[in-house]
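User: Show me a protein chain along with its predicted structure.
Assistant: Here is one chain, sequence first, then structure tokens.
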Amino acid sequence: MTTRQPKKRMGAKDIAAALRKRIDNGDYEHQLPPTRLLVEEFETSPETLRQAVGILRAEGRVTSQQGKGVFVRRVEPIEFPMHRFERGSRRDDVENGIDDWKAAILELGRVPSQDTPKVSVERASADIAAELGVAPGSFVVARRRTRRVDGEPFQLADSWFPTEVAFNTPLMDEEDVTLPGGILANIKDRQYAQKRWVDKVRAWTLTADQAVRLGLPTGSTVPVLQHVRVGYNAAGMAVRCMVTIAPGDLNTLVYESIED
């Protein structure tokens, strides 16, 4: 006589995999079924289901609204042309408040916006100090921005400047400033205008603060790109270090080269 083995109960990872497949297949276009129904279907506990949904939330696939349910997060990614960004003939439109970044997003047929910048004077971390060529702990000016596409946070763009560059300039203003050629090309007799750039791209793990700014849960497992651009003036001085944090599921950074 054969003894019938009890059915193995699915764990949170198994349930998350099943829900992920349904989302990818389009079975859930807008919202997951109520918790009660999913608990019954998977023959699991509410706690295990919450853990499964937590996995999907960390991946950036769903969002939860208290009392309303779990919603599928569908955001169309962009291919951002880094080889054109801030280079050559910039696309700044001062009258309409469109800087070169916003112009690039508009060219993709999307709607750009930017949260009000946060400006602070702070001591440079070892990494920022090294990029700017100043002593660690030196005071620098930080200008932090969250950039949105179609209303969704797509990138964090935080810049650091030596105090001699930023003090008594629009870089200290907590407002969205647009000037032809960028702010650095319009201050202090153009002595800090950028003439050369160095770009560095690496994989990155979100900090808790960065996750919150991007609307993602702390501990998010969304793959992230970190793009560092250091700008130098004609004298070879590092005048700006901009660090862009770009979730990999939303951003492809494109570089195109043309043979001379």
